[in-house]
């Protein structure tokens, strides 16, 4: 039984007979997309974990793409009717859009077990545990009976619009060069199944021999990595023509370590 942002008003805090609960089926998975408090935030979705596994995409309260200006959202690619409805309840309705996208992407929407969204964003819950990460949505039942804990909270990020799934990588860059400069470092991944755009790993002071780490949520599952593109820029013309390189770049895949 999959709960698509089960309702908060009149249900949150009620006895289990009244609302969705893990006792309702052999396996209950829940997607929380609008769990900010109803007062004053107008959240429509229930906040607490109530299933066998509970997914909190983007932290479960504010979905990317739902803060677009009303005109661009109402004249949506899906049409004016759907755009108008989305404007009123965009976060709430993201749950079924993620679910329908999950049918097409059996390897997408990996949920990382974590104590909070902030810890997930900071990389504390990376990579997936040895038994793997459940997939939010249609394929969540692959993880039936895998978790023994009472409640399991799973976190992930999604794109602003479809296609929604993102794949998480940890990228570590150690710089080489003669002198420190200010600027930024970008990295793009190339693999057997596709390439990513450039992602910023760090900006500010770039020091040779220092190591910089970033977690990226890529729009593509690149498969086996074949190449990494490294770019740096110091944003202004420096008469000393500083040179920087990458001594090493390490890429860790969240899904399989």
Automatic annotation (TrEMBL):
It is found in: Cell projection, Neuron projection; Secreted; Zymogen granule membrane. InterPro entries: AB_hydrolase_fold, Lipase, PLAT/LH2_dom, PLAT/LH2_dom_sf, TAG_lipase. GO terms for cellular component: extracellular space; neuron projection; zymogen granule membrane. One of its GO terms (biological process) is lipid catabolic process. It comes from the Eukaryota. This is Pancreatic lipase-related protein 2. Its EC number is 3.1.1.26. Its main location: other. Belongs to the AB hydrolase superfamily. Lipase family. Pfam families: Lipase, PLAT. Residues 167-257 form the PLAT domain. The gene is Pnlip. Keywords: Cell projection, Cytoplasmic vesicle, Disulfide bond, Hydrolase, Lipid degradation, Lipid metabolism, Secreted. GO terms for molecular function: galactolipase activity; lipoprotein lipase activity. SMART domains: LH2 (SM00308). Pathway: Glycolipid metabolism; Glycerolipid metabolism; triacylglycerol degradation. It catalyses: 1,2,3-trioctanoylglycerol + H2O = dioctanoylglycerol + octanoate + H(+); di-(9Z)-octadecenoylglycerol + H2O = (9Z-octadecenoyl)-glycerol + (9Z)-octadecenoate + H(+); 1,2-didecanoylglycerol + H2O = decanoylglycerol + decanoate + H(+); 1,2-dioctanoyl-3-O-[alpha-D-galactosyl-(1->6)-beta-D-galactosyl]-sn-glycerol + H2O = octanoyl-3-O-[alpha-D-galactosyl-(1->6)-beta-D-galactosyl]-sn-glycerol + octanoate + H(+). It is a peripheral membrane protein.
